[in-house]
Amino acid sequence: DIQMTQSPSSLSASIGDTVTITCRASQTIHNYLNWYQQKPGKAPSLLVYTTSNLFGAVPSRFSGSGSGTDFTLTISSLQPEDFATYYCQHSYRAPYTFGQGTKLDI
Amino acid sequence: DVQLVESGGDLVQPGRSLRLSCAASGFTFRDYAMHWVRQTPGRGLEWVSSIGWGNNNIRYADSVKGRFTISRDDAKNSLYLQMNSLRVEDTALYYCAKDMDSGEYFDSWGQGTLVTVSS
Q1: Mean per-residue pLDDT, B37-56
Q2: Considering only CB atoms, which chain B residues are within 8 Å of A98?
């Protein structure tokens, strides 16, 4: 199975900051990497798919990059609604494992 | 709008069975693969199983293979997860999730249904 490792596991930031979350796969997953946001008591929601494609109405302050085994999610100009937990997930082949999550708080 | 509503979660004893359901609306259900994903505070998010459109491409996580069975009824716009030989470690919030464009990522999620396995 492909293991996904996120760092950091938690992160403190302020409104207006730019933050970067890293996700590393245990083997190449090409560009099959997706990011989700989860707020307390809610289901995860898709943010970015196949490395760099923003889903639906996701604001442009979110961006994803990477390839192979190393990927990043960058959030620029943090807004109050961005404080949440973020998960990466690969979609290269089953099982489609998730990272352990990065909790972003103020 | 896409809506996914899970049901069937309960408190059950180890070794018993449970069937989860997911009622889908707001999209052409038969055209999309569907997934079950579970979440626990300790193990985080774990993909459990998926089923393609037309009942093809059924896959399971190793942790549930041979015990869980995924199925769908396109006439009823419903997804199911039959869970047999339940273990304490199957305790989790189970989400139904819609696949996006057969990409094996999840663009819509239900609110989850809680399964607790305990004696």
Answers
A1: 92
A2: 44-47
Q: State yes or no: pLDDT of B11 exceeds 90.
A: yes
Q: In this structure, are residues B26 and B20 in contact, taking their beta carbons and an 8 Å threshold?
A: no
pLDDT digits (tens, 9 = 90+) for B77-102: 999 999 999 999 999 999 999 999 88
Query: Does the beta-carbon distance from A101 to B45 stay under 8 Å?
Result: yes
Integer-rounded Cα radius of gyration of chain A = 13
Half-sphere exposure in the Cβ direction for B60 (13 Å, CA) = 13
Q: Does B103 touch chain A (CB under 8 A)?
A: yes
Whether B47 sits inside 8 A of A45 (CB atoms) is: no
Quote the radius of gyration of chain B (alpha carbons, Å). 13
CA distance B15 to B85: 4
Locate the chain B residue with the closest alpha carbon to A91: B104
What mean pLDDT is reported for chain B? Answer: 96
**Does residue B103 have a pLDDT over 90?**
no
For residue A95, whether the previous peptide bond is cis, meaning omega lies within 30 degrees of 0, is yes
Check pLDDT > 90 for residue A86. Answer: yes
Per CB-CB distance under 8 Å, the chain A contacts of B96 are none
**Cβ atoms within 10 Å of B70's Cβ, excluding its own:** 21
Instruction: Of B28, B48, B31, give the one whose Cα is nearest residue B113.
Output: B48
Q: Do B47 and A97 touch (CB under 8 A)?
A: yes
| A53 pLDDT above the threshold of 90 | yes
Complete edge-to-edge strand list for the sheet that includes strand A102-105: A10-12, A102-105, A85-90, A33-38, A45-49, A53-54
